[in-house]
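2024-03-11 09:14:02 INFO worker-7 job=invfold-0412 stage=load source=structure_tokens
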């Protein structure tokens, strides 16, 4: 999110973020050096557009298209992590690591169980 309070048709308001107003930018960056490999500015919802697998899926697939089938490893935020995305990327020889939301559609039942602390395992 790039902080911005001026007049702009695609300025976003996100009350839970530290910067409540701004321009939302999707970025694919190299984890070793921080260089931006690909980016896209979110311009709001497109009229009549339906997402088959969800917005996060479409964003990731469009951002990593140049890097598919090259055995790259992606690290994603929980907004983007869905089992369908992971499976489709794996078929295209791209590996994924991400935090997950246990309430995402399609998540296995075991993801809803709380992890036990080391003391509780015994």
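2024-03-11 09:14:09 INFO worker-7 stage=emit residues=122
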């Amino acid at each position: 999110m790039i902080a911005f309070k001026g007049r702009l048709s695609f300025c976003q308001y996100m009350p839970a973020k530290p910067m409540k107003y701004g321009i939302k930018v999707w970025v694919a960056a190299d984890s070793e050096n921080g260089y931006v490999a690909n980016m896209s500015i979110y311009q709001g919802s497109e009229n009549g557009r339906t997402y088959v697998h969800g917005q996060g899926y479409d964003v990731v697939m469009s951002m990593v298209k140049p890097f598919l089938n090259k055995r790259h490893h992606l690290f994603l935020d929980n907004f983007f992590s869905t089992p369908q995305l992971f499976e489709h990327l794996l078929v295209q020889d791209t590996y994924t690591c991400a935090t997950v939301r246990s309430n995402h559609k399609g998540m296995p039942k075991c993801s809803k169980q709380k992890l036990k602390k080391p003391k509780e395992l015994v």
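2024-03-11 09:14:09 INFO worker-7 stage=report msg="The first strand starts at residue 2 and ends at 3."
2024-03-11 09:14:10 INFO worker-7 job finished
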